[in-house]
Amino acid sequence: MRADPDRGPGVVGVGETPSLRHPGPDCSTAALMAQAIREALASAGLTPAQVDGLGVASFTLRPDRAIDLGWRLGLRLKWCMQDEMGGAGAINMLRHAWLALQAGQAETIVLVAGDHFAEADFAALVRGYNRSAQDYLSPLGCAGPNPLFAMVTQRQMARTGLQREDYGRLCVAQRAWASANPNAAYRQPLTLAQYLDAPMVAPPLGRLDCVPVVSGASALVLRARPEGVRVRLLASDARYNWDQQEGDGLQTGIADFAQALWRQSGVGPQDMDVISVYDDYPAMALAQLCDLGIANAGDLPGFIARRIASRALPVNTAGGQLSAGQAGTAGGMHGLVEVARQLLGRAQGRQLKGARFGVATGYGMVQLRYGMCANAAVLAREEA
Amino acid sequence: MSVHISLCSACGHRVFPARLWCPACGHDRMHSAPVQAAQIQAWTVAPAQGSAPPAVVATVRALPDGPVLVVRLEAAPLRIGQRVDLFERSIERSMQGQPLPWGRVLPD
Fold first, then answer.
1. Over the stretch A308-337, which tens digit does the pLDDT of each residue have?
2. How crowded is residue B91: how many other Cβ atoms within 10 Å of its Cβ?
3. Of the four, A35, A128, A246, A337, which is 20 to 30 A from B92 by CA?
């Protein structure tokens, strides 16, 4: 998909709640979403009355749906959608919203993703995530995504020579980025020794390879004809169920479209000033960096040492989900919000100087063995 | 000893568990076929869940023609590539009464 190069929509605002590890008794999914939307609108200088489009992704908003949230926020809408693509939901909604704005279906669209979990809610969610999980994997003793991605990680280690220390260096680097994100769940420095000493969850995955479950919400505001600083979608693509779960999980669907994505965007991996890859596990962050052509699967340990550990390459600059936390579906929007925030120049203490181009990926909806859904968006800063 | 997989009646494509339509050809009829020998591609130990103990689970490829299945193992293997014998075991709340795929690691 190629956006109109002359005059087109733009992302004009971003908002994100703090990632709450221990939310209070009054916390709710809808309230978190309202908080993120309010911040996003304020950052764009807009009022709720100007919003005429709403896209919502959530596991825990139920029994409310997107339009119920719209009603509770007092929004009058011309465009409304609900997404259930998990970690691929944010970019899925972005792609829909972009077309809607281009087609004149709405002027100002808010996209929001968020979830509020109590401990038991999350366990119940993953245990019955879909029919395969509910009827097959969970009763087998393979509940939730950790055991599946432990096996993907084991295969990646066998294939690439990666060691636990290498994954640890990625986690340590993301924690260092998180230190400048006041919303991150974990901000204190992490050492490689702490990573290696963390308890095993499902070998080879330790505690710090698994995203902390938090409550929170993230939001984006898009306008059909924005003025001033905004972020344009240069190109995007997606693959949903691209390999029928018959591959090895070490490549995502991004590998299938990356070349065309870069060609359509008119820029390349080397031009990216900020990168967000979906980091439900370090192995998947690395897989997507390879799929995008940013890393080479032939030398991942070297890539981590030279580019990631040194933070020479700005990847997951708000800490990613590994340090900022995974607030359910908001985990899929966290990276997109961070790229947009950097390109808008609103990242404050962690602002990357002169950031013009960025890429964000989404990944998720675990089926039998790994995620079915992957997408990516290449974005650019525009002014005046 | 075997696990019953699903074989497309039109093209012979093999999947587990059964789908509505064949992912290879789109046909909607399939029949059951037994597989017994398999080879380990990856394994882990899933943490205990409530009263359930930790579980050794593995991704295995049925020999010689697939498919790839996630199975429960009786005990942890030693290495990728080890052979397993597949068998079915019924557990409460599983696949609407269908048995689940288990494997027994064979000595080298």
1. 999 999 999 999 999 999 999 999 999 999
2. 16
3. A246
Mean pLDDT along residues A19-41: 96
Q: Look at residue A121 and tell me whether its pLDDT is greater than 90.
A: no
- What length does chain A have? 384
For the stretch A58-72, pLDDT in tens is 999 999 999 999 999
Q: Are B52 and A147 spatial neighbours (Cβ–Cβ below 8 Å)?
A: no
Contacts of A140 in chain B (CB under 8 A): 55, 57, 70-72, 91, 94, 100-101
Q: Say which DSSP state A100 is in.
A: H
The pLDDT > 70 percentage for chain A reads: 98
Question: Which token pair is A7?
Answer: 């005059």
- Are A72 and A180 in contact by the 8 Å Cβ rule? The answer is no
- Contacts of residue B38, Cβ cutoff 8 Å, sequence gap at least 6: B60, B61, B62, B63, B69, B71, B83, B84, B85, B86, B103
pLDDT < 50: residue spans in chain B: none
**What pLDDT does residue A384 have?**
77
Chain centroid to Cα A139, Å, comes to: 29
Q: To the nearest whole angstrom, how far is the Cα of B42 from the nearest Cα of chain A?
A: 5
The pLDDT tens digits for A263-288 are: 999 999 999 999 999 999 999 999 99
**A·B CB contacts under 8 A:** 84
Which residue, among B91, B90, B88, has the nearest Cα to B104 in the 3D structure? Answer: B88
Instruction: Name the DSSP class of B105.
Output: E
Residue of B nearest to A241 (CA): B23
SS3 A381: strand
A144-167 per-position pLDDT tens digit:
999 999 999 999 999 999 999 999
Burial A195-215 (b: 16+ CB within 10 A, else e): beebeebbebbbebbbbbbbb
Residue A121 near residue A60 (C-beta atoms within 8 A) = yes
The number of beta carbons lying within 10 Å of the beta carbon of residue A105 is 15
Report the complex ipTM.
Answer: 0.95
Describe the strand order of the beta sheet including A230-240 as a list of residue ranges. A79-83, A53-57, A108-115, A216-223, A10-16, A230-240, A371-382, A357-366, A274-276
β-pairing, A371-382 vs A108-115, is unpaired
pLDDT band at A4 (very low <50, low <70, confident <90, very high): very low
- For chain B, the residues whose C-beta falls within 8 A of a C-beta of chain A are 17, 23, 41-47, 49, 52, 55, 57-59, 67-68, 70-72, 80, 91-96, 98, 100-101
